[in-house]
């Protein structure tokens, strides 16, 4: 199996669209695509917003990055961005538990992207960034089940527990599969778990806040909960691998490790002992939640070697320090 470490120029002569290009994951994807020689049409809501400056500074951006103004609720803007593209990476999505802000743009925007890809007539494949939120939210899953691409979140459970982000991502992914059938567009889906790692963009996004809150003093305790983690560079590479592999199809669970919060804070405290990392669990009554088993074999089979969670956490914190989001404590 070939392992892709050093970039090669497989993208020469190809133009691809990345929606939500300025986001945490998309920025790394744009960087990788430029390194591979692709011409990238990246959609942002405002190309002149200084928050997108990091994209313009990427190597190859001057020659091969075109920033297009587009909103998920504006079909024409998405259609214009996708025009002339051989591939589309649809990563843009609200990341919030506010039902009004989340569901409509995530679902309608996704339908627009698939329709625009079909209408363009040049698109070979659409890669959709779904989420673990569309996979694991199922109270009926037994403790011994290995979580993989066959698992789907229960929409009623998401609604009843007000997990509107998971609900929106699951409904959007369902729409993707329905639209793929209807339009004949070739779609492949990546389902990342909680993503961390170094930031290219200036602002701290939602998943990085999950780590930062244990270092900046805002979390006084940790919860009795488990979470799966993956590095952002592996998520970007997963998108590229499933785009380029001719035989790629279906869903790809993108996960490196599942940790209990106690393990997460212990790793952080060991790596960076100067920060006020919480030492107490907020739930001292219930038994400790057990990590679920999962399979990332499909991406491994495409050649992905996952960055270990401890290294990813270390580089997340170093990046937060470098960008001035955390004080440097020796
Ligand atoms: N980070 C994670 O842990 C994680 C895990 C699993 C899946 N995902 C998925 O990965 C994708 C990227 O997430 P991320 O972590 O990189 O988040 P992020 O940094 O918040 O990026 C989200 C991007 O979507 C754009 N966007 C949101 N609403 C939009 C709208 N109505 N029209 C146009 N663009 C819109 C944002 O643009 P603005 O900057 O203009 O707001 C931003 O560029 C999302 O689909 C998310 O669901 C993320």
Automatic annotation (TrEMBL):
CDD domains tied to this protein: FR_SDR_e (cd08958)
Signal peptide: none
The keyword Oxidoreductase is assigned to this record: yes
Superkingdom of the organism of origin: Eukaryota
EC number of the protein: 1.2.1.44
This protein's pathway: Aromatic compound metabolism; phenylpropanoid biosynthesis
Residue span, NAD-dependent epimerase/dehydratase domain: 16-248
Keyword Disulfide bond: yes
Molecular function, one GO term: oxidoreductase activity, acting on the CH-OH group of donors, NAD or NADP as acceptor
Keyword set, alphabetical order: Disulfide bond, NADP, Oxidoreductase
Family membership: Belongs to the NAD(P)-dependent epimerase/dehydratase family. Dihydroflavonol-4-reductase subfamily.
Xref: PANTHER family: CINNAMOYL-COA REDUCTASE 1, NAD DEPENDENT EPIMERASE/DEHYDRATASE
Record protein name field: cinnamoyl-CoA reductase
Organism, as annotated: Elaeis guineensis var. tenera (Oil palm)
Taxonomic lineage: Eukaryota, Viridiplantae, Streptophyta, Embryophyta, Tracheophyta
Gene, per the UniProt record: LOC105050729
């Amino acid at each position: 199996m070939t392992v892709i470490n050093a970039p090669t120029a497989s993208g020469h002569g190809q133009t691809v669209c990345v929606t939500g290009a300025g986001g945490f994951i998309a920025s790394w994807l744009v960087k990788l695509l430029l390194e591979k020689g692709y011409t990238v049409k990246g959609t942002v809501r405002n190309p002149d917003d200084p928050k997108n400056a990091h994209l313009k500074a990427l190597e190859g951006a001057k020659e091969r990055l075109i920033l297009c103004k587009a909103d998920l609720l504006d079909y024409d803007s998405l259609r214009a961005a996708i025009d002339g593209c051989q591939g589309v990476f649809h990563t843009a999505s609200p990341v919030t538990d506010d039902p009004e802000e989340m569901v409509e743009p995530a679902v309608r925007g996704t339908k627009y992207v698939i329709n625009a890809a079909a209408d363009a007539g040049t698109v070979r494949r659409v890669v959709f960034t779904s989420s673990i939120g569309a996979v694991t939210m199922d109270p009926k899953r037994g403790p011994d089940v290995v979580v993989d691409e066959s698992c789907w979140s229960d929409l009623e459970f998401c609604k009843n527990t007000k997990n509107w982000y998971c609900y929106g991502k699951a409904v959007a992914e369902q729409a993707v599969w329905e639209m793929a059938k209807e339009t004949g567009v070739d779609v492949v889906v990546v389902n990342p778990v909680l993503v961390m790692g170094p930031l290219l963009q200036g602002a701290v996004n939602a998943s990085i806040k999950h780590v930062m809150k244990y270092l900046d003093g805002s979390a006084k305790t940790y919860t009795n909960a488990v979470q799966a983690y993956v590095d952002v560079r592996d998520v970007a590479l997963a998108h590229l691998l499933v785009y380029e592999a001719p035989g790629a199809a279906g869903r790809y669970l993108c996960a490196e490790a599942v940790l209990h919060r106690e393990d997460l804070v212990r790793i952080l405290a060991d790596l960076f002992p100067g920060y006020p990392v919480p030492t107490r669990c907020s739930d001292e009554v219930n038994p400790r939640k057990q990590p679920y088993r999962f399979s990332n074999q499909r991406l491994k089979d495409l050649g992905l070697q996952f960055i270990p969670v401890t290294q990813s956490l270390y580089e997340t914190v170093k990046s937060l320090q470098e960008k001035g989001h955390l004080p440097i404590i020796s």
